[in-house]
Amino acid sequence: MSTLTPNTATPLLKYTGHPLVDVGAATITAFVGKQRPEDVTRADLEEVAGYLFQHYNRSYMNSYLSCVFMNSAYFQQIVAQSIAGKKNQQMALDPEKQSQYHDLHLFAFRQPPQDDAPLCGLCGFPSCGVAFREHFPLITGRDVLNFFPHATAGLPICAACMLSVAAMPLGALRCAGRVLLVHADDPALTMALVKENLKRNQRFLDLASAAGDKFPDAKVARTRLMEQLANWAQREGQRRASAERKELHSRPTSVTAYHFTNSGQGPDLDVYAVPAPLLSFLTDAQASQHKTAWNALVNAAWRLNEKLPDAETHRNYLYEDLLSLPEEWPRFVRTYFLRKGPRATFKDDPRAQYRLARDLDLIHWPLLALFLERIVGMDQHRVDTIKAFGDRVALHIAERDSRFWNRFNLAKRYSDLRASIVRAGKEEQKAGRPPLIGYDDFITIFEYGEDDARRDWNLARDLVLIRVVEQLHEGGWFKHNPEALDVTLPAAESSDAADNAESPAKAPVTD
């Protein structure tokens, strides 16, 4: 929790679990060069509050703070409209009200709380006053009684929580006219992301104090979010790989991002959840055996024909599709691992150009296997079985029957796919070799039980196909059979009632 108490033995600053307060507490901690909020001193709070007072009252902060602290005293001028309906006029804010606002929002820690003060609604310690929308984003305004204790207006809040919320914008990213704030279950990850944003924002403020420029506004919030997490994952992967720190193991953590505006013209909030398995995958994808393949997939997903080649406006479709996981993992696999882009795409969407013929070098089974383990949670035995079957299919195509390529990857019905595998298995047995696949392995990959096909049988076929393509490409088969890459892969579809009603060929069996 984040609080100030008169007891000097009690830390001045702690995490509360509230994202706005925790990001602000991390911002204060990072600003003064400490590692933990509990290490922050009263002198540190004075330094932070003074810095905020110096910059927040300047014109270059208006564009940012107007979406955070609505109608706050940080704006030197306020806009008011006369009752007669005249055009907006500039009115100077009362200096006394400005001073009162600053005393509460920034410097309340200078005064001890009153003995009869109500408890802070965030941390439970004595409050320093009451917060409204101009102090704390996305709560109600003055004289609104809803959702507050004892039917009173406003949120009782302590001095440390108030200052934490005041500092929060510097630990977040201004994006698309809103605040993009990232809060993790693991405070170390929250701190890492806050440090990056604080460094960026301080760099601008150091320049803006002389130039007076407007606060920079990044674009494409979902890309910026995943870009930040991917950068963190890269550093985390390097940290884990370092020889002197191999013994360190970070616990799994999830992240929730809040993209919000507190504007009086329409407050709004979008929430993005990033589960722990996805962060684990991003970190492990940076390992030496996957890094090149992963970076290639990411680089091929940036929006084409970018008019403003700015790192803070460029959109990445793979990053954004990561936020649909794990629910949309079949579509993700087909798009990025099998290079089969969606039929309908936006203008300048690179996925419209995804083709096996041009993207063979991007097919990488080890990375897919990592994805299936981390994101899908697929049983390792099934992953290994798919891989082994893919190896046998590739060998069969390359050395015995090139026609099986079309029969395998163009089958539109489960019965056709099953029949082609059975036929190939019989041919292998006639030649004195083991069948293409055994009964148990076939059930593991394509069925729940005998004659009970998986509804996602075509997805299972795609997983096998990815391994087949990788093996054929590495063996140079496509160089001698380029026409094989001209085929159009069938659209994703599940087995239908007709497939289930007919009598399928018997599954192949081993001797």
Structural account:
This protein is α+β, with helices and mostly antiparallel strands. The chain contains 20 helices and ten strands. It has helices at 19-31, 42-56, 62-65, 95-105, 159-167, 187-211, 221-241, 276-284, 291-299, 317-322, 329-337, 356-359, 365-376, 380-399, 404-409, 414-430, 439-446, 457-474, 477-480, 497-501; strands spanning 77-80, 89-92, 129-131, 155-157, 173-175, 178-184, 255-261, 268-274, 447-449, 452-453. The strands form four sheets. Strands 5-6-7-8 form a four-stranded antiparallel β-sheet, sandwiched between helices. A hairpin with a 2-residue loop joins strand 5 and strand 6. It is elongated.
Secondary-structure topology with pairs:
Blueprint: H1 19-31, H2 42-56, H3 62-65, E1 77-80, E2 89-92, H4 95-105, E3 129-131, E4 155-157, H5 159-167, E5 173-175, E6 178-184, H6 187-211, H7 221-241, E7 255-261, E8 268-274, H8 276-284, H9 291-299, H10 317-322, H11 329-337, H12 356-359, H13 365-376, H14 380-399, H15 404-409, H16 414-430, H17 439-446, E9 447-449, E10 452-453, H18 457-474, H19 477-480, H20 497-501
Antiparallel strand pairs: 1-2, 3-4, 5-6, 6-7, 7-8, 9-10
Helix pairs in contact: 1-5, 1-6, 7-8, 8-13, 11-18, 14-18
Work out the radius of gyration: 29 Å
Q: What shape does the CA trace take?
A: elongated
Please count the helical segments: 20
Percent in strands:
5-15%
Intertermini distance: 66 Å
Q: Tell me roughly what share of residues is in helical segments.
A: 40-55%
Q: What is the number of beta strands?
A: 10
The overall pLDDT average reads: 86
- The low-confidence parts are 1-8, 77-91, 492-511
What class would the helix/strand composition place it in? alpha+beta
